[in-house]
Amino acid sequence: MIITEAALSRVDQHWAVKAIGDDRLARALEVGAARAMRSSAGHQTTIIFDDAAAADNDLIERAAMAYEIAAIEGLNAVLHPSSDEVCVQLRQVQAGAFRAYSLRRTMPIPQEAEDMVFHVLRLMALAYCSGQLTDLRRWLRDHERDIKTPSIADVSWDRRIIYQLYDCWMRLLRKQGWDDLDAICEIIADLRKDQKQYENTAFTSQDYSVKQATAFRLIALYHWAKATELLAVYMLLHGQPLAIEAELDKHFVAGLKAAMAVQDAALEGILRWLHAMSRKMVAVYPAER
After folding, report:
1. pTM, whole model, 2 decimals?
2. Which of 27, 39, 115, 233 fits as disulfide partner to 110, beta carbons 3.0 to 4.6 Å?
């Protein structure tokens, strides 16, 4: 589905977007466009633009989040495309994801490992859901050094899972032969083995509320890992099982509920977008084979 000017205009009128303010929204879009142009031009052309980094970064973050809110309202159309309003909702998802991706791709890549991982995963999902894969792959190539999978040496159990799942989703997007898909299954299998060794270390706190929050976070990550494995196996088996959508829904919804139970907004947002991305991957898989 092509993103039309009409769809972009409609998503610009969404309440979350309008709350930014017309002037501030115009500034965010202008800065995003200038930065994208500057990035594409590289060293060949000098583009002069008054870019107040700190203030504009905050503004772009707020605008991108507003567009994501608009897109998330229509995600049900991606996950359950059956209502009469499905086309309108799909256009809202695509337009919101397109605007959010266009803005987020111009943001500095976070230095902290987990923040970097979530930033890249969010970009991947937004690009996939808005049909910007060509641009995304160029962005990934341009920032290859800054987005490598973080080391899992001496990290907490939850971060060990997150970093390994990041590697898996990079492979799902890349799909350079069957080796990438086989590697995903091996990574998940290794995580199951590691669980016996590392899980208990996550519950060293004597505080019950901390232990409870840790448990819910791990539950969310385990469901994310299972959904990741299911998607890789589906591609390895050339589109089997046929009912994979229901299985993906089950694990992503369970993961979302666990993340929401401890108000882990960052993890919740990633799971929402990867859920939508996984369903679109399944929908287009026959054409990509």
Report:
1. 0.91
2. 115
